Amino acid sequence: xxxxxxxxxxxxxYELIWAKADRYVGKILHxxxxxxxxxxxxxxxxxxxxxxxxxxxxxxxxxHQFEAVVVTDLLEASTPELDDVVRLKDRYGRVP
Length: 96
Known about the structure:
Blueprint (H helix, E strand, L loop, with lengths): L5 E5 L2 E8 L4 E7 L7 E3 L5 E5 L2 E5 L13 E7 L7 E4 L7
Antiparallel strand pairs: 1-2, 2-3, 3-7, 4-8, 5-6, 5-7
């Protein structure tokens, strides 16, 4: 797991990748208030996200989106396919 942790800037905040191995990735998604992640799904990536008092399982092909009303930190553990993103709608112009 060399090279971790590292931070990836996003238009909605940032990701802090704290673990990266052959079979999993761990990160914190820091979302600024009023921002929203893409409406998206993944072909292979399987995610579990946790925030205070809640846990979410996002299996492959499930369409999902998160919006922050207040500053929000989500803990995510997933399979390692970081580039497996199919964006359906994106406030920041990242839909192909």
